[in-house]
Amino acid sequence: MFELKIQASESDSSSKFNAEALNLLKKAIEVVHELVEDADIQITDKGINIQALDNIHVCLINIFLSKNLFFSYRCDKNLVLGIKLKVLNKIMKTIKVSKNDVFELNCEDDGNVLSLKYESSRYVLSNDFKLYKFDIESYTLPSMDYTASITFNLEDFMLLSKSVGTFDEFIVFDAKKDSFTFNQVSDVGKSSLVLKPNDENGVVVNVSDPICKEISMKYINIMSKLQGLSDKVSIHIGENHPIFFEFSMEEYGYIRFYVAAKKDDH
């Protein structure tokens, strides 16, 4: 039996993420739906795992939501829930947990439906989602050697989609010894965001060898949907490796993207 409950309560202070647990679950489903139509949601005694590779094999997303994120969580045995995301995402977007509202997901060990229940002071909403056997391939990523990395505020990362990335379909990541630059150059203009190590502002830059990579803005725009779910973002770049983005919720989970660069050198 799998059971998950999210319940907003002013008296509950067991988790700083508890009040935002539903928002995190909704955003996780939304960003996966931006990449694929179908997904296998893996349920374990540690939490929820979702992995998906887009159909052009450019971006892999890996999500883990710890059981500690939720008001209550039960998993009697590991399950793989094959879900069509379009309807699930649409319904999840309509749900908001207010004080004393309750959100629940549950599924029998050998069941063929995932049941959703949302109970507010005004009504009770119930939905059953058919489960499928997609046989989606899972990926184990090898250890990678990155020559450049940066960790900085998620608020500043949002500038990539709101401002820096408005001139072209691709964006350049240029890492040097003492700085990390994001830039675009096109026929209509150019833009750049330069970040340097700054302990006070939480900017950490580590570059062993200068490196320059270019990726599609499509994936940056998808990541921008995670605004408010994490304080920091970490980006790691290496030769012959996808660019690795990590949005960490500390012990409550993470959302990771691995995005193939357009070309090795800009």
Automatic annotation (TrEMBL):
Highest taxon of the lineage: Eukaryota
Protein name: DNA sliding clamp PCNA
Organism for this UniProt entry: Anncaliia algerae PRA339
Similarity section: Belongs to the PCNA family.
Gene3D superfamilies: 3.70.10.10
Record's keyword terms, sorted: DNA replication, DNA-binding, Nucleus
Matches recorded under InterPro entries: DNA_clamp_sf, Pr_cel_nuc_antig, Pr_cel_nuc_antig_C, Pr_cel_nuc_antig_N
Annotated ranges, domain Proliferating cell nuclear antigen PCNA C-terminal: 141-261
One Pfam entry name: PCNA_N
GO process annotations (BP): leading strand elongation; mismatch repair; regulation of DNA replication; translesion synthesis
Gene Ontology cellular component annotations, sorted alphabetically: PCNA complex
Proliferating cell nuclear antigen PCNA N-terminal domain boundaries: 23-137
